[in-house]
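Last lecture ended with a question: if I hand you only a sequence, what can you say about the shape of the protein? Today we answer it with a concrete record. The protein is Pyridoxal phosphate homeostasis protein. Below, first the input exactly as provided, then the predicted structure, then a couple of comments.
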Amino acid sequence: MIAENLHQVEQHIKEAMARRTRVPKDAPVKLVAVTKNHDVEAMREAIDAGATDIGENRIQEAKSKFDILDRDVTWHLIGHLQTNKAKQAVKYFSLIHSVDSEHLARALDKEAGKIGKCQDVLVQVNLAKEDSKSGIYKEDLRPLLDLVDALPNLRLRGLMCIAPNYADVEACRPLFHEMYEIFQQVKEIPFKTANISYLSMGMTHDYQIAVEEGANIVRVGTAIFGPRQY
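The predicted structure:
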């Protein structure tokens, strides 16, 4: 079932790519399979069916899986990160999607430096200014980007956002459209070390629209694994 779901999501991504108008139709999209509240057996099934990137929301849950998962995958931290978990975050994750403050950026830089790692990160933007979501506001974005670029043990790779959970999924489109425009503007900034490559946006309910509007990373859980196991 998980394998079938994964392949269906992959097919939907291909179809959404074909509908793109502002982005080259063959520009690749990375699918991050989000395994929050799903067990290692479900993860193995997805990986054996072709999933190469795994997303987790919480450090502690990821750690418990990382220690027993006997598969070679790329780990993404997609949930809110507290600064006191920075040490574990840089230990386990290849790409951290949720940098949203100077304090967190400095903590990650410090911990990455201790283990000789250059940690890839995305800056999370709260474009809709929802109180319930993390992320920096658009008007405060540039100073944080410049800071991350200047920190020696972080490598800025792009931006992430989470759209509001609208009843009508089409309502997400203007936000994704604007987020892609911001992403394109950020790519033009002459950073020192940043390699701006990734725009992470879109989840189970809205990933197809996100791809149509320019996302090149989508974070999909329920459509692959079914409802979460609590």
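Comments.
1. The chain has one domain: 2-225.
2. The chain is about 40% helix and 15% strand.
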